[in-house]
Amino acid sequence: IGEDFESTPEEQPGRQSNGSRSANNGRESKPFLSYRAGVRAVWPVADKVSLSSGLFLAGKGSKFEDETFNIEEKTTFTYIDVPARVHYEIGDTGININAGFQPSFLVGAKNTVTINGTETETTGTDNYNTFDIAVGGGVGYAFDNGIQLNLGYDHGLSNVINNDQFGGFEL
């Protein structure tokens, strides 16, 4: 189980956000906490080095507020993530650092816009690219019973907006 944080779409055009805070052109990005749950397998390859991969269902997205125009927008994505990581254990502490890449497949999207208290909701993946690739890293701790906790950062490299649907527009 991990927590992913990504930069805001203002900082990286067309990329989803999962937890940064910035202010650009009157729009403020709010922290976006979500879920990531699944299974992971780990294969030792050397004394302190292991490889891992897994299958996760993950929520990602962005939330913005523009107080000037009384607008709030929240976009949520549901992805299937398939991370591949290299782990290095630090001493005999159970603590490891890890890095790797992650292909992700979009399976659901919802956009909710509220303007002056009036809410409009759209769902579906037609306006978004259904494949993303990310690079990431993190730190983890392995308990003696085999359970592991991980805190990681994954940065998506793909534009989530389907430019064909928006005539080349980037978020």
Report on this structure:
The protein is mostly beta strands and 171 residues long. It is built from no helices and ten strands. The chain has strands at residues 23-24, 27-29, 36-44, 49-66, 71-81, 84-89, 95-115, 118-123, 131-142, 148-156. Strands 1, 2, 3, 4, 5, 6, 7, 8, 9 and 10 form a ten-stranded antiparallel beta sheet that branches. Strand 3 (36-44) and strand 4 form a beta hairpin. The chain is elongated. Mean pLDDT is 82; it is low at 1-24.
Write a brief caption for the model:
By secondary structure, the protein is an all-beta fold. The protein has strands spanning 23-24, 27-29, 36-44, 49-66, 71-81, 84-89, 95-115, 118-123, 131-142, 148-156. Strand 7 (95-115) and strand 8 (118-123) form a beta hairpin.
